[in-house]
């Protein structure tokens, strides 16, 4: 899980929030589409419900925000540098109807409604939400043989079922 939880907890604390629990739940991968198909499944959703119930119980029995803080958050400071993702969405501008669905779905604003056929590679985090929502198929992952090799290697590393994880 590298330093993600620690960095998120730090950002929340800087904003005045008190992290009381953390969790990592498996979902179908947006780039490595041959991994975790059908997830989250019933077992995953049960884990989410279990965490939610435990958080409610924890908050019902604490006095003050500090007592509710997560005991230990995994990670290291300084955080491991993010090296980026080699794959970015590709656009077939001729197929783009400028409907704006991709721009509205983009969590980082890398696509604008004014120019939906373009992607700001510096803002794009390669979540591929734009690919998933495009009704015209104008956006794709691309990558060809390089993407397939990465998918195969990722699938091999993640062949065993990974379970959700959380901490209070």
TrEMBL record:
One Pfam family hit: Fer4
Sequence ranges assigned to domain 4Fe-4S ferredoxin-type in this UniProt record: 87-116, 120-144
Alphabetic keyword roster: 4Fe-4S, Iron, Iron-sulfur, Metal-binding
InterPro entries per the UniProt record, alphabetical: 4Fe4S_Fe-S-bd, 4Fe4S_Fe_S_CS, Fe-S_Ferredoxin
Keyword Chloroplast tagged: no
PANTHER family in the record: ADENYLYLSULFATE REDUCTASE, BETA SUBUNIT, FERREDOXIN III
Designated name of the protein: 4Fe-4S binding protein
Organism of this sequence: Enorma phocaeensis
């Amino acid at each position: 899980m590298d330093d993600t939880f620690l960095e998120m907890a730090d950002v929340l604390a800087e904003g005045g929030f008190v992290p009381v629990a953390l969790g990592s739940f498996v979902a179908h991968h947006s780039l490595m589409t041959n991994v975790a198909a059908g997830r989250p499944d019933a077992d995953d959703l049960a884990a989410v419900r279990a965490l939610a119930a435990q958080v409610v119980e924890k908050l019902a029995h604490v006095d003050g925000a500090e007592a509710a803080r997560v005991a230990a958050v995994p990670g290291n400071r300084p955080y491991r540098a993010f090296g980026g993702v080699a794959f970015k969405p590709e656009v077939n501008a001729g197929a783009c109807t400028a409907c704006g669905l991709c721009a509205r779905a983009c969590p980082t604003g890398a696509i604008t409604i004014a120019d939906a056929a373009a992607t700001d590679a510096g803002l794009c985090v390669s979540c591929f939400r734009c690919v998933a929502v495009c009704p015209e198929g104008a956006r794709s992952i691309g990558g060809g043989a390089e993407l397939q090799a990465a998918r195969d290697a990722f699938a091999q590393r993640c062949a065993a079922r990974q379970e959700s994880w959380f901490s209070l």
